[in-house]
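Today's session is about reading a structure prediction critically. Students often jump straight to the picture, but the first step is always the sequence itself: look for stretches that repeat, for charged clusters, for runs of hydrophobic residues. Only then move on to the predicted structure, which in these notes is written as discrete structure tokens rather than atom positions. Here is the chain we will use throughout the hour.
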Amino acid sequence: MEIVHTIAALRERLGEHRKAGRKIGLVPTMGYLHAGHMELVSRAKAENDVVVTSIFVNPLQFGANEDLGKYPRDLERDSAMLRDAGVDFLFAPAVIDMYPRPMETVVDVPKLGAELEGAVRPGHFAGVATVVTKLFNIVQPDSAYFGEKDYQQVTIIRRMVEDLAQPVRVVPVPTVRDADGLALSSRNVYLSKEERAAAAIIPQALAEAARLYDLGADDPAALEEALRAFIEREPLATVEVAAVRHPETLEPLTRLRGQPILIALFVRIGTTRLLDNRVIGSKSGNEGVA
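Below is the predicted structure for this chain, in token form.
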């Protein structure tokens, strides 16, 4: 595996493979890798000749009071994991390489980006869309791989690619979970032992949503309220978002029956924000896909 730190060097190295007609897969990450990231890498390796994994903690997607400064970083550990997985290139630029001067250009999908997580983190998804577009421009991948845990992010990137005619296939990969159902996340490292145990309420709430749906629930507002009450039985949990939405448009629904629905949760355990989601009620067999 070759570690590359500059845009120019990566473009030069990938140009050789592109001229040879090799398919290139990109796995964009912010590092502090876990088994969920490695599942993305595995999928990319199975479908491409060359795999690039990027590690970049993107300041554009962090708000003023968020955890940019303390976001976990361990490039040496991550490099070893990627090398063992057979990644070809690790792109690990510094902020000065990605943003040599303050960005004047912003890529935004404002309607989708203002929903759900975007409602409590204004500007977050513009930062995501901007950095992903820049990575697409640098790597020029045939395919890019994203975890379904970040369902809204995947939805926004898919729409961005479609709207801008970006020649990239966006590949969502199912969420990897611990034994108790908690979605793997780099932020799980922030949790104390007590908080980690408490975080199990999040996947339990998704299961509760499916149970209520199966019992005939048809009122989105009532289901959202039931989920908030369920989660807040856990003293360490604070619900920021518990939403029932259309799985493609992310818009609120007026009824539940006869269609797939997205359950989106954004829960603070102690001071740590955790995301999770589930699509239920699908006739195509996608229940629990996220």
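Discussion point for the tutorial: Confidence is low (pLDDT under 50) at residues 283-290.
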